[in-house]
Specification:
128 residues, 7-stranded mixed β-sheet, 4-stranded antiparallel β-sheet, 11 strands, 0% helix
Length: 128
């Protein structure tokens, strides 16, 4: 069973930066897309950013556009999330996710159910 392992979370002040990393445990693992979600206490898991390897399409939630950047290396099964200008409302557990296959139709990159594999999560706390 493939595991996704996140790292890079921590405590940062408002306006600071963090870089999250996520790597798949198996070198032969290949995915259609990888993404980041987050979940704050008492709230539902929400989409942050996603990267489709084919064509290099990238998607962001409106709340992070211009501040966060997703990137990755398909050959290394690794995806990153560079987070700049962090705000207290960015505080959450951040999860890496991988979508194994694409079956056609509208690609719902924003939907957690679209993804097959999840990391254990890494805490990001932004102090005011």
């Amino acid at each position: 069973q493939v595991q996704l392992v996140e790292s890079g979370g921590g405590l940062v002040q408002t306006g600071g930066s963090l870089r999250l990393s996520c790597a798949a445990s198996e070198r032969t693992f290949r995915s259609y897309a990888m993404g980041w979600f987050r979940q704050a206490p008492g709230k539902e898991r929400e989409f942050v950013a996603a990267l489709r390897w084919t064509g290099g399409r990238i998607y962001y939630a409106d709340s992070v556009k211009g501040r966060f950047t997703i990137s990755g290396d398909n050959a290394e099964n690794t995806v990153y999330l560079q987070m700049n200008s962090l705000k207290p409302e960015d505080t959450a557990v951040y999860y890496c996710a991988a979508d194994k296959t694409y079956l056609g139709g509208t690609y719902r990159y924003w939907a957690p159910y679209e993804y097959d594999y999840w990391g254990q999560g890494t805490q990001v706390t932004v102090s005011s």
